[in-house]
Amino acid sequence: MSVTTRFAPSPTGHLHLGHAFSAFNGWKRARDSDGRFLLRLEDIDPTRCRPEFAEGIQEDLAWLGLDWDNPVRVQSRHLAEYQTVLDRLAREGLLYPCFCTRSDVIRELSASAAAPHAPDGAPLYPGTCRRLSPGERADRLAAGERFALRLDMRAALRPRLFYEEEAEGRIVCHPEAFGDVVLARKDAPASYHLCVTHDDASQGITLVTRGDDLRPSTDLHRLLQALMGWPVPAYAHHRLIVDADGKRLAKRDRAMTLRDMRERGVSPQEIIDRLSRMEAFAHGRHART
Length: 289
Ligand code: GLU
Prior knowledge:
The chain is an alpha/beta fold. The protein is 38% helix and 14% strand. The protein starts with a strand and ends in a 7-residue tail after the last helix. Mean pLDDT is 92; it is low at 284-289. Bound molecules: glutamic acid.
C-alpha cells in the first residue's frame, strides 16, 4: 500500500544528522511504497524561525538526494486555516483565554508541594485563568491584556483514544496528562500541537515518521484529531541519534550539521549509507550490520 509521509522541521537552525535520519526514514518509507514524501516547514514561531534556515533545509535535503513531492508547505502562509480550527474549538466552548505569564505559572506552581509537568516537559498549568469569573475575563479582554488560548482539558477529553504505532500495535492515549495545553500563544498565532495535527490531516499524511522525543505528544494530537474529526494516521516513532556521550544531537552541535560534514568533504552517499544502517536498527527488525 502506498503511504504519504512527511518531514516537518522547524527552521530554527541547520539540519544535523538526527534530522537527516528522520527525513531519510520518511523518504524511504514513501519511496519504497511508491507513495509521497512531503516537506513541511514548521515556521510558526516568529521568534525562533529564520528564512535562511528554511532555505538551508531544502538545500541540505537536495544535497543528500532526498527528493520531496511539491508543494512545500510553509506553515506561516496558512495562519487563516489554524484560526478556523481555533474558532471552531472556541465555539464548542473548549478554549479559554489565559493571561498568565510564564513566571506567573512558575510562581503559582512553586507555592504548591508538587510541581507536575506535562509529558512534553512544560509545567502543568494550574488552571488559574479557567477559574476567572466571566466578568473579570471580559474586563481583562476589554483592557487589551495579551492572552494565550488554552484547551479546557476536562471539557475536551474524549474516552478510549488510541493510535497504531508500527511494530508495536495499539497505543492507548492519555492526553489529560497535558492539562490545559496552550493552542495559541501570546507571541505565536497557533501552537505546534495544533498546526502539526491540522497539517497531517490536510496534507493527507498516512504515516507519521518522527523521533521518539515526540511520541508523548501523539496522545494530545490524537485528542485534537478526535475533536476535529480528522483522519488518524499510523505512527512510526524512530529512536534518536545520540552523540558519543549518549546525549541527543542538538542544532548547536555544529560538527554534526550536514553543512559542516559537506564542508569537511563527507559525501552524501556516505551519510545515506550510515543512515541506512541505523534505520534497520531503529525499528528493531534486524541486527546492526
Ligand atoms: N517541527 C517539529 C520539530 O522540528 C517536528 C514535528 C513533527 O514531526 O511532528 O521538532
